[in-house]
Specification:
The complex is a heterotrimer. Chain A is of the alpha/beta class. Chain A folds into 2 domains: about 120 residues, Glutathione S-transferase Yfyf (Class Pi), Chain A, domain 2; about 160 residues, 3-Layer(aba) Sandwich (Rossmann fold). Chain A is built from 11 helices and 8 strands. The longest helix of chain A is centred in the C-terminal third of the chain and has 17 residues. Helix content of chain B is about 55%, strand content about 0%. Chain B is built from 10 helices and no strands. Chain B is mainly α. Chain C contains 18 helices and 34 strands. In chain C, a hairpin with a 5-residue loop joins β32 and β33. Chain C is globular. The chains are: A alpha/beta, B mainly alpha, C alpha/beta. Chains A and B meet through α8 and α9 of A and α2, α7, α8 and α10 of B.
Amino acid sequence: MKIPYYPGCTLNTVAKPFDESAKASAITLGFELEELSEWNCCGAGFPLTNDNIMGLAAPTKVLANARAAGETVTTLCSVCYNVLKRTNKALNDDKERKATINEFMELEYDGSLNIVHYLEILRDTVGFDKVKEAVKRPLTGIKVGAYYGCMLLRPGGEVGIDNAEAPTIIEDLLSALGCEPVDFPDKIECCGAHLAMGKTDVVERLSGKIMTSAIESGAEVIVTSCPLCQYNLDKSQEKIKSSDAGFKTVPVVYFTQLLGLALGQSEDETSLKDNQWDIRPLLAERGV
Amino acid sequence: MKITLSKDKIESEGIALIERISGEDLKQCYQCGNCSGGCPVSLEMEITPSQMIRQLQLGNIEGVEEANTMWLCLGCQQCYSRCPKSVSAAKILEALRQLHLRKGEDHAEIAEMDMPLLKRGPQQAMVSAFRKFVS
Amino acid sequence: MPRIGVFVCQCGNNIESTVDTQKVADELKEMPGVAYTCSYKFMCSSPGQEMFKNAIKDNDLDGVIVSACSPHMHEKTFRKASEAAGLNPYKCEVANIREQCSWVHHDETKKVGTVKSLDLTRMMLERLKRNKPLKATSIPVTKKALVIGGGISGIQAALDIADGGVEVVLVEREPSIGGNMARLSETFPTMDCSQCILTPKMVEADLHENIKILTYAEVEKVDGYIGNFTITINKKAKYVDESTCTGCGECWEKCPFKADSEFELGLNKRKVIYTPFPQSVPNIPVIDAPKCPKIQKDKCGLCAKVCGPGSIDFTQKDEIVTEHVGAIIVATGFELMPNEHFGEYGYGKIKDVVSGLQFERLASSSGPTGGKIERPSDGKTPESIVFIQCAGSRDEAKGVSYCSKICCMYTAKHTMLYKHKVHEGKSYVFYMDIRAGGKRYEEFVRKAIEDDGAMYLRGRVSRVYEKNGKIMVQGVDTLSNGQQVEIEADMVVLATALISRKGADSFAQKLGIGYDKDKFYSEYHPKLKPVETVTAGIYLSGTCVGPMDIPESVSMGSAAASKALGLFSSDKMAREPITADVNKTTCNACWDCVTACPYTAIAKTEVKDREGNIVQMLAEVNVGLCQGCGVCVAACRSKSIDLAGYTDEQVYAAINAF
């Protein structure tokens, strides 16, 4: 089974480990991520103003290209997922807007694309029980905090991969991999997002609070599905540590890296060495 | 600071423009403060989201313009997702940013940005930040 | 030639400002059949009515038109005056030249208004010429009432009717009457113990010779009409013989099986054979059949073995009973929006986040903790409690749009109860507005703040979560610059929204009464007919109409009872003679009228010959049920139905006069 796949800007570069581990895991689980032959950046943010039709142009082009490739498209990046899903809804909610954008972009996109996140494929198409059966290297006893951030969840009525206040989809996957998911209160809070450009002190405070919440709840690893969350959490730790000696660092990896590992990919294949805070000593210590 | 209230100010064209761009009706907000209570950056803001809406309800656009609030909003939708009146503070703040950006008043200079960050950081951070800070 | 009088009212300036009433009177004077006309300042005033009566007598009038305000306002007044002057009241008609003319036209030259008033009055004149004298009909009244719901409102209604000497059947779904009030600890603003003031009323109802209480029973079907309802009630099997059970309690003492107590809202267990609470009325237990091993698997049966009078009967079945009553009082009450509704407050998963009603149980001396404030999770005394008002109320996005009205008051009461029981405790209240409109209510809230030290924070709570065994409450205080506030609490109490009962809508359809978007029952008129419904003979009482407190529920119970007693004050009740009538010679029994009638007032009847053979089928109108709406007249293809007072002849004559 081939599923059209939209990587988005970051997964092709700094978030390559996310992309590669997801692709390899898919093969093991019986499907294939087929990258769209032509794609552009989604805009990395859904335009919030009412009159900004230009902001919808880029994601609409992505949707049109994806529709040409099939009825469904999948993404890995939370932001891409959020932007594509909300754009699709905005087009379907306002036929006039849809017509204007199609005319302006010389497209014929009808709004009928089904946008699913990779996690949804694992849950709804493959099934977490099948994932569990495919596990070769159970990550037994590793305490993992699933960090959702905002873009996978909100607004609930429009995006909604899971319940916006108490999601469990990533935890359910982690359980299938043999991990011990750790629930922590701040798993739905924002990491600081684009303030990484210029306001790193704010990012450090927000990301620090999230990591502290996870660590205090017992997490030894944090997983995410967003390259920007990964970056902010990963990069903030050095600074936090320098000002707060008590702060214990924590590896922040993509959920697909743990998935790949559990399905039998090597530590090299899952690019574990690329993370700033190495998870490998923990794996070695636990003998998994 | 004293605010002099008047019909002209409360129902000014500037307020109407903010409502038009954001698609939000400021009167809908009954000031419960849920947005300020849940906003992850509210602690960093000079005026919190609910206060920002209150100032606009009073017609005090200048008071809102001076605050750092709009430049700190992350667009995380926490405010909107818990608002009992379905008002999006994020959209109103975006409208306030747009008022600047559409006039070419940028909030950041790309040239002054940290180069290593531009090279190693996730592109999505840059795209997203440019959209919020640069016209 | 008829002798008709036309009285044109100026209504002060209400009509006169845009209608030349004298001109209307003058021109009508010239119409054939008109014997007398006049214009007058206030026709409805006493001198106006006196003038009206004298004019009828002096001019020997046989019909009158009052061109004035809407007939909804004063038709009754003038028909009464006509009758006093010796005229059949249905020979008096009102032409509406105020609401339908002077109020909607603003032409100060009075041109438009005068012409239209003339038209309206002339049309009425042609109609009136064809009016037949009608006589009010009367129907017998069954002097017995049904009260649905045994909460405080229903109990009050039942007691008042019973004290008025009329029999009452009080139907309650639960095993005991008492309703939600039985769950409360103390009541605001007087702080008297809820059960202490409620249980005497429950007992009074139980012992009243005019009241029959059916508990564990539900109304299945309502047939008939005002004065003559037939009620089908399902009495669920209690598996206990009510006539012999003494309520000794031996059975529930010995029953080895437990289930969650509905009365204690999940905070405690009860036995499988149980009464909801110690002061239950009647004090007769029921067996929770789905959970009883004897009934399910024929195992145990201990209760039957220990029952002295041998009252346990495992073979008992649901029983259908029928009651004939003249009036129905609906007092079905409310429920609370469940804690599971609130995602940001922990979805009912955090054990120490409870509802206001659950807190009542924790504070009640008859509750699961004996009145000690203890956290449900570990039984510890909470050192701090956060109260969150408007949980689900005033929340268009995820809850209900309305204010639940009683929460401000009971939350203030909760902070007091907590302070009185846990002196060291600190309470915090998140509120949006304090709505304390009631006698001594505002003072009560101030007392909570000033004397008992409740910390009131104006703002909503964004989130409640658990951290290191504490409940973290993250909210805002909008009065201190919209500042985020965080409280480490031991317990959280949600003032959850009052909502209509599950199935309130389908029950309303069963009764034929209206309900609003929130499925609360609709009054006939929210101000002037607050206990009546659109269906005559069915009255409303208590929180099935909307959120209200105990005094209001009780007042409404008494008000509904007085309406019922008014109906019962005579053996027969007068009915407007504006009813449909079927022409027996032309009816071809197509039954379109039967289908169309919204009041099921038309029946299929058989016409038999002397030998008893059916020779013809006919539609027949039950004048007791007929509301005179005229739908059947429009539906009848053979034009066999006419509406008295609004015959086709009258209506066409009026139209032709335009």
